[in-house]
Design a protein that fits this description.
single chain; alpha+beta; Nuclear Transport Factor 2, Chain: A; 2 domains; six-stranded mixed beta sheet; 3 helices; 6 strands; about 30% helix; RNA endonuclease activity; hydrolase activity; hydrolase; N1-like
Length: about 140
């Protein structure tokens, strides 16, 4: 009985948050397992570019990573991801074929344990937008 009531409350909160344009709150609810199914702005791990799939697997394996900056703290200065304490998010390079530098593609993961992230996001445009990675 209490689960049904909790589900109704959670669904109501999602409806309100989407109505006011707070998609990041919905993403956070998805990341914390409050709702089933992928969020609207998500990408399946299998749909990541090949290099993104490789980076994602390295993250889940705990490395080793090809770039010194991989695993460094991501500050979320753009505030496009749900707010968390500093150090929660870490960034990883997704190789960009033909790029002379690290390119614009990244995976940003959040969680207390680095090797077991709570949630990961993919950006192809150097933090201008994010899509939650769903298994």
């Amino acid at each position: 009985m209490w689960r049904t009531a909790a589900l109704r409350v959670a669904q109501s909160l999602l409806t309100v948050s989407l109505a006011v344009g707070a998609a990041s709150q919905a993403d956070m609810a998805h990341a914390r397992g409050l709702f089933s199914g992928p969020p609207e702005n998500s990408i399946a791990a299998a749909d990541l570019p090949r290099q993104g799939q490789q980076t994602y697997l390295l993250i889940l394996q705990g490395g080793p990573f090809p770039h010194d900056k991989d695993g460094s703290v991501f500050g979320n200065r753009e505030r496009l991801l749900p707010r968390e304490r500093r150090g929660y998010y870490r960034e990883y390079t997704v190789e960009t074929p033909g790029s002379r530098d690290r390119g614009a593609r990244r995976i940003v993961c959040g969680g207390v344990r680095v090797k077991i992230p709570d949630v990961c996001y993919y950006t192809s445009d150097h933090y201008s937008s994010f899509r939650m990675i769903v298994p």
